[in-house]
Design goal:
The chain is α/β, with parallel strands linked by helices. It has helices at 2-7, 16-20, 23-31, 38-49, 62-70, 86-96, 113-117, 157-160, 172-180; strands spanning 53-57, 76-80, 99-103, 121-123, 126-131, 134-137, 143-148, 163-167. A hairpin with a 2-residue loop joins β4 and β5. The radius of gyration is 18 Å and the shape is globular.
Length: 184
């Protein structure tokens, strides 16, 4: 950050957290269960502002629980990548513009690649994407979030280019921040 501030000739008091979100937003996130440490707040901003699909590394599942609460107003479906009907649920979510939270992602299934890359083809006024053997209408309201409890997931290099890894593994500073916020 300091290098960017110097290069862009930005005031030293510039705070990226205040630039990307308001304090009231952060208070709402805390009330919804997001850990209140600085790393968690910054990670939440990345999840909500990123153009790439967020891939949450969340060993404690607290961030995933917060995300479910945060998105409760939307048409959210929570599934595991290992579910028998995973592909069907993915197709329906893409077609009808649902929000999909895919849990327990240790390795990303190949069926997700065209969706994550947004390999869309125009067919007249509509856009479609191929999921497995099917061509599915792509609804622009569709969102997908991938989560894992594995603290050290191994993503292939081509997957790292199309997802935004957001690591919620607790650090010493993060744990200190969480302990300070516990009411007495």
């Amino acid at each position: 950050m300091n290098k960017w501030k110097k290069t862009l000739n930005i005031d030293e008091k510039f705070d990226v957290r205040k630039f990307l979100s308001t304090e009231s937003e952060q208070l709402v996130w805390k009330s919804q269960g997001l850990p209140s440490d600085e790393l968690s707040m910054e990670n939440a901003m990345v999840i909500l502002r990123s153009q790439l699909c967020p891939f949450l590394v969340d060993p404690s599942s607290r961030a995933t629980d917060w995300l479910k609460t945060y998105l409760k107003e939307k048409k959210v479906e929570v599934i595991n990548q290992q579910d028998n009907n995973f592909t069907t649920q993915l197709e329906l979510a893409v077609r009808f513009g649902k929000t999909l939270i895919v849990q327990e992602v240790d390795g990303v299934e190949p069926v997700l690649y065209p969706v994550l890359r947004k390999d869309l083809a125009a067919q007249g006024p509509r856009h479609v994407v191929q999921i497995g053997e099917k061509i599915i209408d792509f609804n622009p309201d569709f969102r997908i979030y991938l989560t894992t409890r594995n603290p050290t997931p191994e993503l292939l290099p081509d997957m790292e280019a199309i997802v935004n890894e957001v690591n919620f593994t607790t650090t010493r500073a993060g744990l200190t921040g969480q302990v300070i916020d516990i009411p007495l």
